[in-house]
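User: Can you model how magnesium ion sits in this protein?
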Amino acid sequence: MNNKTLIFIPTYNESENVKKIFSEIKSLSLSADILFLDDNSPDGTGAIIDKIIAENKNVFAIHRKGKLGIGSAHKDGINWAYSNNYDVLITMDCDFTHSPEYILDFIKHSEHHDIVIGSRYMDKDSLKTWNLFRKSLTHLGHFLTSTLLGMPYDSSGAFRLYNLNRIPQGVFGLIKSNSYSFFFESLFILNFNKYSVFEFSIQLPSRTYGHSKMSYKDVYKSLKFLVMIYRQKTFNKKKFIYKN
Ligand SMILES: Nc1nc2c(ncn2[C@@H]2O[C@H](COP(=O)(O)OP(=O)(O)OP(=O)(O)O)[C@@H](O)[C@H]2O)c(=O)[nH]1
Ligand SMILES: [Mg+2]
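Assistant: Here's the modeled complex, given as structure tokens:
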């Protein structure tokens, strides 16, 4: 692997997961750096990250003053990766729903594609440990994003690889969402501008430690945002075109 690679992990109250996820990634022996972005987690996740940084020179952190949203965390992570000249960016959650060993598959599949996505919908057993409510909500989300945005992909997940040296930074500048809708908005914009997307199947176990940060308000906001993109795509699609 000659590409300069960054693994980006946003955290909010992940004190039970952050050390373990770091050691699992470390045990893969990749030549990759890791960037954590913590939003001043009340449970002290930020201090645990600083301890990891003090002992590992390939680990970095952005500390923000408060919870600014998962989408804005990803945008800051992406901009940091461009500013620091990374070729490849892998993004993932800290809660072990994204198993670190898949990172190797992302890298393997990245050679011929601009974006690689771990999909929950190619294998019907991918979400087998999830409760029925959460599984139904996820499938409904997938049905709506694929129907309204005309993309067959798993567009609401964070387990992704971006080939930054094939995607101009300005494309990401078109993304408006700072919340969970960041994921389908970013994929829609990338796909609309003809960047290639490759998916492979992943198993997604449910979170073991800690709590989900997604609220009903987030789900409602995402739905509203989805309808807004659908309307803009129908009546004003020029808005999504990236002009160099
Ligand atoms: N920095 C930062 N990280 C966040 C924020 N919201 C969520 N995260 C992190 O983003 C990742 C995904 O958040 P989750 O709460 O697991 O959301 P989810 O995966 O959609 O929901 P579950 O499947 O129910 O866990 C985790 O690593 C969180 O700690 C935020 O506002 N700021
Ligand atoms: Mg999660």
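A couple of observations from the model: Residues 97 and 200 are 16 Å apart (CA to CA). The domain at 5-240 is CATH 3.90.550.10 (Spore Coat Polysaccharide Biosynthesis Protein SpsA; Chain A).
User: Helpful, thanks.
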